[in-house]
Amino acid sequence: MSDHDDLLTGLAGLSAEPPAGLIDRVAARWVRVPGPIGDVFVASTDAGVAFVRTTDSVHDDAAAFAAAFRDRVVARPLLPGGEPPAGVLPALRTGRTGDIRFDLAELSGFERDVLLAAATIPRGEVRPYGWIAREIGNPKAVRAVGSALGRNPVPLLIPCHRVVRSDGATGQYIFGPAAKLRLLGTEGVDLDALRH
Amino acid sequence: MTTEEIRAGDRAAEDARERVLSALAADLDAGFAELYAAYRTVVFSTALRVSGRRPDAEDLTAEAFLRAYRALTGYDRERIAGLAPRAWLLTILLNVWRNDRRTVARRPASSPLEAAPDPADPAEPVERTAERHETGRELAGLLALLPEDQRIAIVLRHVDDLPVAEIAQILGCPVGTAKSHISRGLRRLRELHATTASSEVPDE
After folding, report:
1. Which chain A residues are Cβ-neighbours of B160 within 8 angstroms?
2. Which of A91, A160, A183, A184 is catalytic?
3. pLDDT on residue B5
4. What does DSSP assign to residue B123?
């Protein structure tokens, strides 16, 4: 029955390896890179940067970062390794976000609009929450702007820290008000002048 | 295949299962990397040979592993420890494929069956590669002509080398039924193979 054997050998030869990059359509990757207020963990999917946290804010623990990522972004495995996504290192060094690709698929349209408006604020400058609300054509949504900024999955890279209260107080921040002050200080913002 | 070879295959499969489950119990994300490494070939081969199209097989494989991960995030320790990961993954894959096909069936047909050969192995002599591709392309094309149950059973048994009991578990049928899908599928493949072969050889 050599026909039979040929057939079975032929079928066994139909086993095939997936292409090498296929896992990156399933899993996100994380890297640890230097940032303006200490190191940061950066997670990205094949669509772009999806999640950023300072190492301080997750007790310097990659597992805690993975857990925060899982809670925030629709669940995807998060694996170590890979290169930092293009543009991330210079953006963290210079505060100029440039043309980083972001994966903001989990956000609402409103949240995305808020973040894209915040991304246009240059280093060394700040804007009030109401400015963002006006920019996105929703001038009454000042509170909602604050919540959307508070849920920014990619802080530092989208500089939500450059949005402050209209009375000059610095306001809330994902990593706490002290970190916001420090960050604006490193960017050369005259914090005292803001209060006048 | 000798009994000893079969036992060695089962042992290797059991070792892989234990390694994957203990990695998953220790850390879900690192465990997922183990799960992917251990089963990517069997999942992709099944997707490719059941769907017949390489781009579909890539989509199906990615989707199946993503669903598997999302299911795992909701499983407790005990449930993970009791998993038969290979059969579980292949069940997820085939569900994704059946659901996709139902969706696709409502749309007009796009591209024809590809039945693409595997990329060349650089260590293999050119004429052997050509021969293997010929057989591979033909067989992959013939698989597409089998009824769904037979095609899946044949792929699981003879492409993936799974034991019949595991195939029955994946198909959700008794072992006898799985065996009958396999033997009927093989008989049909042999007939189809003979027809194609004789049509290629000119009469003397």
Report:
1. 15
2. A160
3. 66
4. T
